[in-house]
Amino acid sequence: MKVFKFEVDETFAKKNNEMLKDTRRLQTSAVIFGVLLLALSVALYAWWRQGEVWGLVGSIIAVTFALVSFFLAVAVPRKVGGAQQLYDTYPLAPAMIVEVNERDFVIMALVNTNVDPQIPPRWGVALRTVSRVNGIKQAKLGTRIPVAAVQGRRSVREDEHWDEISPMPIAWGTPDEDVVNTARRAIPEDQWTRLDKARKRLDDAKATRYNLLVL
């Protein structure tokens, strides 16, 4: 699996890339939580001024956690990176719609769970629930969607394999359907076939901790 290079439309990605939206929601939540903790620390400090020693201790703890929240609000977006950086970093992978719900649908991607891309692949399937993918007007089971396989966490005990991989549709990065079609054709047919056969493992994949099932 190789990286699929294309020019990301940053404005389009900001509106449509649900992974970036998740990051912004996390950032907003961290800021709000930090502000609430600061307000709590002020209240506890006022309590201490009235002679309650625990007020000072609580105020210090609240300020500490508030600072951690503000740090996360800044650090998380930087770690995730922008849309162009994400697509330029993570490999192209095949994905298909495997479940259609009333307001969203689930895509399953065939991914290499090895950290080292040079050794023979250790295949797995990764799931992600999405609300919309540009170009898909009606979600149908088996619809082919080219994605970038965004590799996430890995455990200390088994650092040679990824524990979490999230499929990020190419169509979240560009409104150009020709680019998406080129990405779809760039994926070998045998990988699409392997993924199609793995669709029956949906429930098994859902039962895993991080929606990643090794085949």
Automatic annotation (TrEMBL):
UniProt cross-references to InterPro entries, sorted A to Z: DUF3239, DUF3239_dom_sf
Keyword Transport: no
Keyword Cell division: no
Domain of life: Bacteria
One of the Pfam families matching this protein, by short name: DUF3239
Transmembrane segments: 29-48, 54-76
This protein's UniProt keywords: Membrane, Transmembrane, Transmembrane helix
Name of this chain's protein: DUF3239 domain-containing protein
Organism, as annotated: Corynebacterium comes
